Amino acid sequence: MAFTHILLLYRCSLLEPGLVGTSVMQSMGAWVKNYDMLAADQKSLELKETLGGKMQGLFGTIQGPNELAEIVKKIILSDKPNLRYQSNANFNPDEVKATLVDPTGNDVVQMLKRKYLDKE
């Protein structure tokens, strides 16, 4: 009950970002370019080939830090913020839907509120 009360009282929101264009992404790209293909074992080469093509599609979903900051600002200024936000609807949307029946998390909060906080 205390956790639900805190969520409702303090308007807690969870932001789940997708890929964000930071120096980590740049470093990863540099590492991949400098990867020694001649020294790699067969399994590593197969994984790089398989993942390399599939990962290329994700790079089109990269968000900038300023874009994420705008989302945070919108959440903070919202009168009734959601419990959960995914910052990028294009980053693995099917996986998010498969794991979360209600991607906002609001149904769970309301259910717990009715169960523990509402007076009958």
Task: Describe the structure in your own words.
This protein has one domain (1-27, 64-120). 56% of the residues lie in helices and 5% in strands. The protein has six helices and two strands. It has helices at residues 2-10, 23-34, 42-56, 65-77, 93-99, 106-116, and strands at residues 14-16, 84-86. It has a two-stranded parallel ribbon with strand order 1-2. The longest helix is centred in the middle third of the chain and has 15 residues, at 42-56. The mean pLDDT is 76.
What is the typical, i.e. mean, pLDDT? 76
Rg for CA atoms: 20 Å
Report the principal-axis shape.
Answer: elongated
Proportion of strand residues: 5-15%
Main sheet specs: 2 strands, parallel
Strand order of the largest sheet: 1-2
Contiguous low-pLDDT stretches (5 residues minimum) are none
Total domains: 1
Number of strands: 2
Question: Any chance you could write out the topology, listing elements then pairs?
Answer:
Elements: H1 2-10, E1 14-16, H2 23-34, H3 42-56, H4 65-77, E2 84-86, H5 93-99, H6 106-116
Parallel strand pairs: 1-2
